Amino acid sequence: MENEMARQMDNMRRSADLMNQLQHVLRREIVDAETAPSSAARRAPSCKVEKDGQHFSATLEVEDFTPVELTVKQVGRKVLLSGKKEKKEENQEGSYSYRYQEFRRELELPEDVNPEELSCSLNNGRLHIEAPRMALPSVPERVVPIKSDVSGRLKNGEEEKEEKKE
Questions:
Q1: CB-side neighbour CA atoms (13 Å) of 77
Q2: Which member of 50, 79, 154, 160 lies 3.0 to 4.6 Å from 107 by CB, making a disulfide possible if both were Cys?
Q3: What does DSSP say about strands 153-156 and 147-150: parallel, antiparallel, or unpaired?
Q4: According to the model, what pLDDT value does residue 70 have?
Q5: Where is this region: Disordered (predicted)?
Q6: What residues form DSSP beta bridges with 90?
C-alpha cells in the first residue's frame, strides 16, 4: 500500500511539473503577443496605385497567399480584392497550431478606365491589376448665351443687341 501511495505521489509531482511548464509557456506566449505588433498590422498587404497617362495599375504585396486563396471581383467601377488562408499544423506530440489570415481591399477605377479591360496577374508574391486608359470623347466647343432679366422679361445677349440697334 505504501508503494502504491508513493507511486501516486510521483505521478502527482510529474503532473504538477508539467502544469508549471505549460503555465510558463502560456505566460511567455501572452507576453510575446502583447508586445508584438498586431498580426493584422503585420500581415495587411501593402497596396501601390499608379495612374500614368496610358494605364491604371495597382500592385498588392500578397506573398503569403496562393492564387487559389485570392479573389478579385469587379463590380461597376470598383475592384474588390480579398484573400483568405487557413493553416493547421500538428507536431509529433499531438498538439497543433491554427493560423487564419484574411484581408480585403477596395479600389475605385478612374472614370477614364474601361472596367471591361481589367486584367490581373500574380508574380513573385505581387498581385498586379491593370487597365488601359480610354481617350475621353472630345466635347465640341460652343458659346453658351447669357440670359438676363431686364425690365421684367428674360432676354439673352442677342435680343438685347437687336433692341439697342432699333
A1: 7
A2: 79
A3: antiparallel
A4: 92
A5: 145-166
A6: 96
